[in-house]
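Q: Given only this backbone (520 positions), what sequence would you predict?
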């Protein structure tokens, strides 16, 4: 086994022969490469940009069962996702944390309180008895307003709460890439696939272009998994299936004031315009507002439009009128595109999220659909498909039983967190940010502490009101394969979504990045 960190971009190793090439360094590609390596395959994982730079860093940052899917009777999907929520909290308890959702119910709501309670009872049942989150509870209107005074009081009949989990999607993806490297996968970001190669026996490899050196070379492989999300069909070519590309938009808003009891609560609301479910979620000292759904034809053109901004702000003002959020209050915005099976449903919300695996040609495997939450267990099925295509011996998956790099013991998480926070404070990190930093890096806080011993000034916060410090920039560049401002400030830390950095701050960060880039 290799080390998980530092991540090593070993392009020379790509010239060897592989059992499996995985194209796409998002969450599906990372889990697939990791699982395949643990089952004995020689694997290469390539990504044309940075790890998680596509859909996998543009999610709602949730690990959840998908309460809204119950309305479409997708019970197996929900049960599947809730089982994965348990697995992920076990193997990455620092990255997957419990989150309480409040569901206010107003007079005339499309889903009434009794119906919602029935749905939450079913959600609890599908969760099983060994889950890391609280069961649903009921609240009167007065108790709900006491907890969250910014809610619309007119017609409020009460509400319910239920538990799910939150994550940092970009850092989760990075942790799985690191796990894949530790399992023996050759990993390389900024490595674009020009074309798939074929010989008389079918698929034989790929033509690659190094996006940094512009060097071109051939990678030989017996099978390929094209896990490039909305870009997959362009790689597969004329044999690609018909799919729907669905864009989801999120806005990043200021934090919502609440009572002490309500601090940290998220909300599930229904938009008055069309009855769609949307979330309001506390995240890194700000609030995520989303998401929308609209079909697009080109994933590279997926931007946040004025129409989508108005839709989300109007919906939020309807539920939280006293906040009166305006466009000028928006802190950040982002859009992601997911690939769904092509169906003739009138509503995109009704299109199934069920996962499927296609083989447009022998030994070319193309996953379609799925959710961030279920990516690990979907990857199990992908690799099993690969093993059959290669006529390899059946080997069980092991990813469900192995902690991700940096993960403390789930059983002793609270004790670990207390100790890690104390160590970070002793190293010079401000008290109000230590828990967030500890959860972001897990047991790798030891590396941060070593960097702070090297230079105590790296305990400096990048932005005064957000718990991100210079040592994290250095760690990202030295050990996490980050080379640009976007790598560091969008994915290793989501600062560009949480604040606006002035030119002086960007120049200072860019200088720190350049000073710590690996010397070749």
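A: Predicted residues:
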């Amino acid at each position: 086994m290799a080390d998980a960190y530092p991540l090593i971009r070993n392009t020379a190793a790509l010239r060897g022969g592989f059992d499996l090439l995985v194209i796409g360094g998002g969450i599906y590609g990372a889990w697939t490469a990791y699982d395949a390596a643990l089952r004995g395959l020689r694997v290469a994982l390539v990504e044309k940009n940075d790890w998680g730079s596509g859909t996998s860093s543009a999610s709602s940052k949730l690990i959840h069962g998908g309460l809204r899917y119950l309305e479409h009777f997708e019970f197996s999907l929900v049960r599947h996702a809730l089982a994965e929520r348990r697995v992920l909290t076990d193997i990455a308890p620092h990255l997957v944390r419990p989150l309480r959702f409040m569901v206010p119910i107003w007079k005339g709501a499309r889903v009434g309180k009794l119906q919602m309670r029935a749905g939450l009872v079913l959600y609890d049942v599908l969760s099983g008895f060994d889950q890391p989150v609280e069961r649903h509870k009921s609240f009167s209107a007065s108790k709900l307003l006491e907890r969250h005074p910014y809610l619309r009081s007119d017609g409020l009949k009460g509400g319910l709460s239920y538990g799910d989990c939150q994550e940092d999607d970009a850092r989760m993806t990075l942790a799985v890439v690191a796990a894949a490297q530790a399992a023996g996968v050759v990993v390389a970001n900024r490595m674009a696939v020009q074309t798939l190669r074929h010989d008389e026996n079918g698929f034989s490899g790929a033509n690659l272009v190094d996006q940094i050196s512009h060097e071109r070379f051939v990678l030989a492989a017996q099978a390929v998994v094209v896990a490039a999300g909305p870009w997959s069909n362009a790689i597969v070519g004329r044999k690609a299936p018909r799919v729907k590309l669905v864009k989801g938009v999120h806005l990043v808003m200021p934090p919502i004031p609440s009572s002490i009891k309500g601090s940290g609560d998220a909300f599930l609301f229904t938009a008055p315009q069309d009855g769609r479910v949307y979330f309001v979620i506390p995240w890194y000292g700000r609030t995520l507002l989303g998401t929308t759904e609209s079909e697009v034809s080109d994933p590279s053109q997926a931007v946040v439009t004025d129409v989508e901004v108005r839709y989300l702000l109007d919906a939020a003002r309807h539920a939280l009128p006293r906040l009166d959020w305006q466009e000028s209050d928006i802190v950040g915005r982002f859009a992601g595109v997911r690939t769904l099976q092509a169906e003739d449903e009138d509503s995109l919300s009704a299109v199934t999220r069920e996962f499927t695996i296609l083989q447009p040609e022998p030994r070319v495997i193309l996953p379609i659909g799925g959710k961030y939450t279920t990516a690990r267990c979907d990857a199990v099925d992908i690799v099993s498909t690969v093993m059959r295509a290669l006529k390899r011996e059946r080997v069980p998956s092991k990813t469900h039983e192995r902690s991700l790099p940096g993960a403390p013991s789930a059983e002793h998480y609270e004790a670990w967190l207390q100790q890690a926070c104390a160590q970070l404070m002793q190293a010079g990190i401000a008290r109000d940010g230590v828990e967030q930093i500890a959860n972001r890096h897990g047991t790798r806080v030891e590396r941060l502490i070593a960097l702070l011993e090297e230079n105590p000034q790296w305990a400096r916060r990048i932005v005064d009101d957000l718990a991100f410090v210079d040592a994290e920039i250095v760690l990202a560049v030295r050990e996490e394969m980050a080379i640009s401002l976007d790598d560091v400030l969008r994915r290793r830390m989501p600062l560009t979504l949480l604040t606006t950095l002035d030119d002086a701050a960007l120049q200072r960060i860019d200088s720190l990045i350049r000073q710590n880039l690996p010397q070749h």
